[in-house]
Design brief:
The chain has 15 helices and 15 strands. It has one domain: L-arginine/glycine Amidinotransferase, Chain A. The longest helix has 18 residues. It has a 3-stranded mixed beta sheet with strand order 2-1-15, with helices on one face. A 3-stranded mixed beta sheet has the order 3-4-5, with helices on one face. The protein has a 3-stranded mixed beta sheet with strand order 6-7-8, sandwiched between helices. It is α/β, with parallel strands linked by helices and 425 residues long.
Length: 425
């Protein structure tokens, strides 16, 4: 267990990154619908964020973009890119798999009955553009975590129960290698916006992973948070080891959650951001909570935040006071992710946290500076510089996007992922 450490697997922003505004309830994504996107810049910004994590002494992994356009999904619907309606075409070209926090829910080995790390791929059934991601995600995770003595990778929870992965899952513990308390956050609705994480899906994942019911908490996200645009819990809360940082209005019953946590994990530190100091709207627009709260090798924690948090005077003032308390959060690390932020996700959305021994992971999915340099060269040479809304109907763009992905797979030695995973009739 002493070899276990947290590895952040970031989704590489795919070459089809565009602003189609497909995600109902994601205010940033819908606000930028129809604008010109910059896939190359988005991917390079993501790589720079990974470099910032490496500079902090963190372990870093990657997940590669899936096949786009997803012709297999369109074929299952009885159509093709050439014949599909513009809305279906946009769904088939979505680059939303870059949000690796929605790839799966992860329970590390110290928490599970069989002593293996369990991963359940998210079904993402609530949104059409995301519902067809899981076959490629499952193929990647089964390759990256192929050691069946250490890992168990499960297919998605069947519909209609919506599961959106680690974005709605928190784990608190005394240390990453110690047994933890796993919090599954579900929703019941938020005005005009749907609740994407169902209680039934969360309960199914907990059972599949063989978790001790005494060390599991099911918590409801507040309807106010969902209505305000917190489509996932990681937009209003973040946790790391013994620290939970959450907005005052993140949960339907915060007092009950805090009491349950204190009973199950003595020493837990709960930091609540009052609505009077940072409103829900400010928290969501700045993506204050969509940060990576990480443990530093030298001790203490850092918050890896989008630069939008620094640009908000009230948010940044609160964060500076947090650091000044000399508590567990010692550093603020702003990173530039403007392109991905415009599509509705910050640092936490881009990564899937896995506690494991890096030596047990397929090394093709782990990166250092040199490997990031190689990825950057492919992105700079092959990723489209810009995509306008009308470009989604151009066959030349479809070929450019596919060729860019194939070049990346060849560079990483992952040609086995060149074909889209077979999952549709």
């Amino acid at each position: 267990m002493t070899l276990l450490r947290e590895i952040n697997f970031d989704g590489i922003v795919g070459p089809s990154h565009n602003f189609a505004g497909l995600s109902l309830g994601n205010l940033a994504a819908t606000a930028h619908a129809g604008q010109l996107s910059q896939p190359r810049r988005a991917a390079l910004q993501g790589l720079d964020k990974m470099r910032a994590n490496l500079a902090l002494g963190l372990a870093q992994g990657i997940l590669v973009p899936p096949e786009r356009p997803n012709r297999a999904w369109l074929a299952a619907l009885g159509t093709t890119m050439a014949d599909a309606a513009p809305s279906l075409r946009a769904n088939a070209m979505s680059a939303s798999a870059m949000w690796a926090a929605n790839a799966a829910t992860v329970s590390p080995a110290p928490d599970t009955a069989d002593g293996r790390c369990h991963l359940t791929v998210a079904n993402l059934v609530t949104m059409a553009h995301r519902s067809h991601e899981w076959p490629d995600t499952l193929a990647q995770l089964r390759l990256a975590f192929a050691d069946r003595s250490r890992f168990a990778v499960h297919p998605p929870v069947p519909p209609p129960f919506g599961d959106e992965g680690a974005a709605n899952h928190r784990r608190l513990c005394c240390g990453h290698a110690a047994p933890g308390i796993e919090i599954f956050v579900y929703g019941r609705g938020g005005g005009a916006f749907p609740a994407r994480q169902h209680y039934e899906a969360s309960a199914a994942v907990a059972r599949r992973h063989g978790l001790d019911p005494a060390r599991v908490i099911f918590a409801e996200q507040s309807a106010e948070a969902i209505a305000a645009g917190a489509f996932h819990n990681d937009v209003v809360a973040v946790a790391n080891e013994h620290v939970l940082l959450a907005h005052e209005q993140a949960f339907a019953d915060p007092a009950g959650l805090h009491a349950a946590l204190a009973a199950k994990l003595p020493g837990v530190e709960i930091v609540v951001v009052p609505a009077a100091e940072v409103s829900l709207a400010e928290a969501i627009s700045s993506y204050l909570f969509n940060a990576q709260l990480v443990t530093l090798p030298e001790g203490g924690m850092a918050l890896v935040l989008p630069t939008e948090a620094r640009a908000s005077p009230r948010v940044w003032s609160w964060l500076e006071r947090l650091v000044a308390r000399n508590g567990p959060v010692r550093r603020l690390v702003p990173v530039e992710l403007r392109e991905s932020m415009a599509n509705g996700g910050g640092p936490a959305c881009l990564r899937l946290r896995v506690v494991a021994d890096p030596a047990t992971v397929d090394p093709r999915f782990l990166v250092d500076e040199a490997r990031l340099d190689r990825i950057e060269r492919v992105v700079t040479a092959r990723w489209p510089e810009a995509i306008a809304p009308d470009d989604l109907g151009r066959p030349a763009l479809w070929d450019e996007v596919r060729g860019a992905r194939l070049a990346l797979l060849a560079e990483l030695g992952l040609e086995c992922l060149a074909r889209p995973a077979a999952a549709f009739p």
